[in-house]
């Protein structure tokens, strides 16, 4: 028989193309020798070379042989300290009232010392939630605190988990190994252009998720014969786009064109444009009922309202239609990225689990984990959209009659409707009623003084160009405040102490770039190709600026991990046209491209504040530097 650890070895190998013994030993908290013995035992147990070894790459599992074995997957092992912390919080929030720490060591294969360190991190993570505490009683831990704080903690962790992943096509594409989703995206764009068909940018990631799921199903021969759709569908432009799309995809990926998938894709596009062809009114109403029940369950259980996400409604109802047809026809799907989703996005997967329970209650069908992973993709994208579409909430004080106030408010909505929401219009200021609204800002057409800590801006009744400029600046300030935590998290994550250098002396640009790039290579954060690309970029045009800093970076080659090196010189060096004392070597992994905007927004704010910039140049160590940049 195999023990739990050996079963986890199989899971780890099934989760990756190659993995070294050292990596597995670190994850499972054992020695390299134990891993070698486990693999030898696994091969003997199954009487075949299930796991092969390579001195350079490590270990690899034979998927063909694996598919012939009756192996039940074990629980997903969180592989990093941060993943364990999120996993533990999730378990305490929704699954277990308390966790036995002795049993926990066996579940995630880490030592008691590592668990103690994780608990310290969790306590830091929840320190800003005043009522929440991790209580330890001998060998058990549990989470205490107000339900409101628990839900806020969950949503904050969920925001961190989804951000830049479900709306980033590069990140979405990484989930599929059997085909290149970015190539599929290019095909869809080409077909849309050829048919003069437009898809909104915000809808595109959701549509690509659906396309990826459809292609995955076809590759795994999960076909469903369904001829019940309305024949009028074939006359629509959406059907033509879907047909052309799958025809071109079939030529590139070498899959058959499945009419049912063409129809489902057509429904998705038709719904997006506000048109529809009902297959069956009763079926349509049933799907809508399941969708809204899922939305209500997520709102009730997690405190997350996705009811106004039209793209989620279209995508999920279309997916539910396909899912239920598979249940009726007893078609089992495989989902090669199930483990990746469970491990990387456990909080999103938790929402999918509750959605699966709703489907079971409504239909009687038990939804397996592979189907849940598909649902998680839709829910993750929806939650990320809900965060990126945040509008600042405000009230307006207009002590005039309705005839005069309506044009003023309408002009504000027309000009800034995408960035702000007007909660109430009051004719006078009263502190209690304003507090009850909990606005982010107050706009007033008359002078107003109050004691509330709410930004207040006076504008004219007719909202002229000057007023628009003031409102625009106010919204930018609120944006900066809203994303301050994102900036802090990013900088703490990317700027590590071993990549920070102060009071250094170098003679020229080449010496500096060699030093910083070699440091990344030595720390296995970058390759020689990255270094060559940094020099290539510098040769095109110097990356220095008149304020006395430089931001060298690559053109095409990304680093293995996102990171930032900081170098502050005692004496400036000539860098292109300018004298430079402050150097930031930027290394952003391709899947972290969303960090670029946050980074450059932060950098521009620092440079624009000459006093702040001078203070940065005067720091003596890493701690002082971090304190300055996150203040």
Automatic annotation (TrEMBL):
Residues 493-631 form the PTS EIIA type-2 domain. Keywords: Activator, DNA-binding, Repeat, Transcription, Transcription regulation. The keyword Endoplasmic reticulum does not apply. Residues 175-279, 282-389 form the PRD domain. InterPro entries: BglG_antiterminators (IPR050661), HTH_11 (IPR013196), Mga_HTH (IPR007737), PRD (IPR011608), PRD_sf (IPR036634), PTrfase/Anion_transptr (IPR016152), PTS_EIIA_type-2_dom (IPR002178), Tscrpt_reg_HTH_DeoR_CS (IPR018356). Pfam families: HTH_11 (PF08279), Mga (PF05043), PRD (PF00874), PTS_EIIA_2 (PF00359). One of its GO terms (molecular function) is DNA-binding transcription factor activity. It comes from the Bacteria. This is PRD domain-containing protein. It comes from Faecalibacillus intestinalis.
């Amino acid at each position: 028989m195999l023990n739990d650890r050996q079963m986890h070895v199989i899971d780890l190998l099934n989760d990756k193309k190659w993995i070294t013994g050292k990596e597995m030993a670190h994850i499972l908290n054992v020695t390299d020798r134990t891993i070698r013995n486990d693999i030898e035992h696994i091969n003997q147990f199954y009487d075949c070379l299930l796991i092969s070894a390579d001195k350079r790459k490590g270990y690899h599992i034979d998927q063909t042989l694996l598919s012939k074995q009756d192996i039940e997957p074990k629980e997903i092992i969180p592989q990093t300290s941060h993943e364990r912390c999120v996993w533990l919080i999730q378990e305490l929030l929704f699954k277990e009232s308390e966790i036995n720490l002795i049993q926990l060591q066996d579940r995630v294969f880490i030592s008691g010392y590592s668990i103690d360190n994780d608990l310290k991190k969790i306590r830091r993570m929840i320190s800003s939630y005043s009522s929440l505490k991790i209580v330890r009683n001998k060998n058990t831990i549990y989470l205490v605190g107000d339900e409101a704080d628990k839900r806020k903690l969950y949503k904050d962790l969920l925001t961190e988990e989804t951000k830049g992943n479900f709306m980033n096509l590069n990140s979405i594409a990484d989930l599929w190994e059997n085909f290149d989703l970015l190539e599929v995206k290019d095909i869809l764009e080409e077909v849309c252009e050829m048919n003069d068909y437009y898809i909104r940018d915000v809808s595109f990631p959701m549509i690509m998720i659906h396309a990826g799921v459809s292609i995955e199903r076809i590759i795994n021969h999960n076909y469903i014969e369904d001829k019940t759709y309305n024949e009028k569908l074939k006359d629509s432009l959406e059907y033509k786009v879907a047909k052309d799309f799958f025809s071109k995809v079939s030529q590139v990926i070498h899959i058959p064109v499945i009419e049912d998938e063409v129809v489902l894709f057509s429904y998705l596009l038709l719904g997006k444009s506000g048109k529809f062809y009902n297959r069956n009114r009763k079926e349509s109403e049933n799907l809508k009922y399941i969708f809204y029940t899922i939305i209500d369950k997520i709102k009730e259980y997690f405190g997350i309202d996705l009811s106004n996400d039209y793209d989620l409604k279209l995508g999920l109802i279309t997916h539910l239609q396909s899912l239920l047809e598979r249940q009726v026809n007893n078609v089992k799907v495989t989902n090669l990225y199930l483990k990746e989703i469970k491990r990387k996005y456990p909080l999103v997967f938790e929402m999918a689990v509750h959605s699966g329970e709703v489907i079971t209650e409504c239909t009687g069908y038990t939804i397996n984990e592979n189907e849940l992973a598909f649902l998680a993709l839709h829910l993750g994208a929806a939650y990320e959209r809900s965060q990126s579409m945040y509008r600042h909430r405000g009230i307006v004080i207009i002590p005039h009659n309705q005839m005069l106030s309506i044009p003023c408010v309408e002009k504000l909505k027309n000009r800034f409707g995408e960035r702000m929401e007007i909660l109430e219009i009051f004719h006078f200021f009263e502190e209690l009623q304003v507090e009850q609204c909990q606005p982010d800002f107050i706009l007033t057409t008359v002078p107003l003084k109050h004691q509330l800590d709410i930004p207040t801006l006076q504008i004219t009744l007719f909202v002229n160009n000057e007023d628009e400029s003031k409102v625009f600046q106010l919204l930018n300030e609120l944006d900066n405040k809203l994303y301050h935590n994102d900036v802090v998290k990013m900088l703490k994550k990317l700027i590590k102490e071993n990549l920070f250098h102060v009071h250094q002396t170098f003679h020229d640009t080449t010496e500096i770039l060699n030093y910083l790039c070699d440091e990344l290579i030595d720390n296995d954060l970058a390759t020689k190709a990255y270094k060559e690309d940094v020099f290539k970029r510098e040769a095109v045009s110097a990356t220095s600026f008149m304020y006395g800093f430089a931001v060298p970076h690559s053109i095409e080659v990304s680093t293995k991990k996102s990171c930032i090196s900081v170098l502050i010189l005692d004496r400036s060096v000539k860098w292109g046209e300018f004298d430079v004392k402050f150097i930031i070597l930027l290394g952003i992994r391709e899947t972290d491209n969303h960090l670029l905007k946050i980074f450059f927004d932060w950098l521009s704010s620092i440079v624009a504040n000459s006093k702040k910039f001078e203070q940065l140049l005067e720091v003596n160590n890493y701690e002082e530097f971090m304190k300055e940049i996150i203040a």
